[in-house]
Design goal:
By secondary structure, the protein is an alpha/beta fold. The protein is built from 3 helices and 7 strands. The strands form 3 sheets. A 3-stranded parallel sheet has the order 4-3-5, with helices on both faces. It starts with 22 loop residues before the first strand and ends in a 9-residue tail after the last strand.
């Protein structure tokens, strides 16, 4: 496909030491994975990039009815149950290839080594069994490519 975006599920953070104790408090929940950063006085921020594609320009790719609803619900849960700050949640609705790249570029300038990033994509995807690589289909994807 010409408009390919490699499916990458990332958690950008400081290195998580498997031996560290993971703590959390309930209602709302804040889980700390980077105890060393917190002990040094650096408070990590929690970012989210939520992408939802329902409408595809290519008539050969079926439009969907739930991605925007799913991403909206996740945004609500992150804010009210996990205390993500609203300004740190980037919600991209029906993004094309360029808009997805711009979102990643913007976040790359904001996120520090002690921060966390949750990436959520709802929409069609494609898995190439020959290369063992998965792709997200942005709104401007072409089925023939």
């Amino acid at each position: 496909m010409k408009t390919r975006l490699i499916l990458i599920i990332m958690l950008i953070a400081g290195i998580v030491n498997a031996q560290e104790v993971v703590e959390g408090v309930s209602s709302p929940v804040r889980v700390s994975f980077n105890k060393k950063a917190e002990q040094a006085g650096t408070k990590p921020r929690y970012f989210a990039l939520l992408m939802a594609v329902e409408e595809y320009q290519d008539p050969a790719i079926t439009s969907l009815s739930e991605p925007l609803k799913d991403a909206s619900k996740l945004k609500e849960v992150l804010q009210y149950k996990y205390t993500f700050e609203e300004q740190d949640i980037y919600f991209v609705k029906n993004p094309n290839f360029e808009q997805i790249n711009v979102a990643f570029e913007e976040l790359s300038h904001l996120i520090q080594p002690t921060d966390f990033l949750l990436i959520f994509y709802a929409g069609h995807g494609y898995f190439d069994e020959n290369t063992n690589i998965g792709y997200w289909l942005p709104t401007d994807a072409q089925k023939k490519n």
